[in-house]
């Protein structure tokens, strides 16, 4: 638990980028600074789902300003995530490469369900303790998250590709606010959200809460017109729709409480909200100040151990779901992590936290390395990698899941399929130790590692040596053969593996 430390959360939303900074005192987070910039990056995806140069530049400019404010923060004090727009953007790696540099901290793109988990966590943190059953809704620029939960525990989480920017761009492209446009937009939203009807039906929750920009923008307008503050009702939405239809266009819209930066996307936001109210039988939605960035702060305040617990549960869930051999996965994990520790035993003390983090991820990859076997034995590594690249995994970012998928893809077979991975020393050594562990455990029993040592004699060279005790090769001829073949495979990479066994 951070005590007296400053923490910061960065939320790269489709409409706005937000920076929350505060201090942890006596276990509670106190905000000291909040910056919000309307970047509207969700409107900058072209027809090929690439971010336009202008959208990328506006995002970089905002993050550079955030980066100046975060100068001096430690990596453990900042967490930055991106959501639906970068989930969709085909050129997100190009954007993130520069974005990480100007912000000064890594930006993780999270899956829809992980976003939903963080939203619920942030909302629950800002609400008084209660056992009420909660429906939490976050209508964003390009996605809408629905979560059912009780107290601080989310139970059902889903993300849908419908949002205020996307719907405004599609159904109100010229800012024209006609009844026909609203009817079509609401029907289209219900078509996307219809699958939520059974999971989120009214008898499964007691109170509906709205998080983030869309509900806040609508609530501000209603409160300014004299409606009860802090709540959005069906009657209020009907009143607001009438006012939008009277205006006929966003250019002519004049409503107290309506910010200028919200006018262009109010049509999409209102149509999505009306679709949700009608579909899920909502009569009133309470506004809440909690949201995604507060969920990030909660994660930062929690210990690394607690966060890893969530990811451990996710790994166990995937292993069970795809019928992988748990005992063998743990056996491979034990051997791989032992070899990895040997290889990095001479590393500088200040890298211990990095090493521990990579050891955990190597362990998870070992547990997951056979999850594709349920689909195909011969190509299990390919199917396993596909599963990990496309799974909604609580606690993991998309980049973390992709790294695990690379390790699973590379744990067997030729290495040329991972050419781009060898420039990352940690990834290359994780891959090598995982492959060695799979080989040494090929008989599906605990291998004899007595006297075995994995070394990197010169840290400046990409040469690794595996030393075995005298007589080991003759005692285990099959393992020795597989290790020799493995050494040949690594000759086709920038790394070199030398096996010393007799």
Describe the protein:
This protein is of the alpha/beta class and 502 residues long. The protein has three domains: 104 residues, Nucleotidyltransferase, domain 5 (2-Layer Sandwich); 179 residues, 2-Layer Sandwich (Nucleotidyltransferase, domain 5), CATH 3.30.420.150; 198 residues, Hypothetical protein af1432 (Orthogonal Bundle). Helices cover 48% and strands 17% of the residues. It contains 20 helices and 14 strands. It is elongated. The chain starts with 5 loop residues before the first strand and ends with a strand. The mean pLDDT is 93.
List keywords for this structure.
502 residues, Nucleotidyltransferase, domain 5, single chain, five-stranded mixed beta sheet, Hypothetical protein af1432
Q: CATH top level of the largest domain?
A: Mainly Alpha
Oligomer: single chain
* Strand order in the largest sheet: 8-7-6-9-11-10
Q: Total strand count, please?
A: 14
Could you give a short account of the major beta sheet? Answer: 6 strands, mixed
Q: State the shape.
A: elongated
Share of residues in helices: 40-55%
**Averaged pLDDT, please?**
93
At CATH level 3, the topology of the largest domain is Hypothetical protein af1432
CATH architecture of the largest domain: Orthogonal Bundle
Q: Strand content of the residues, in percent?
A: 15-25%
Radius of gyration: 26 Å
Domains, number: 3
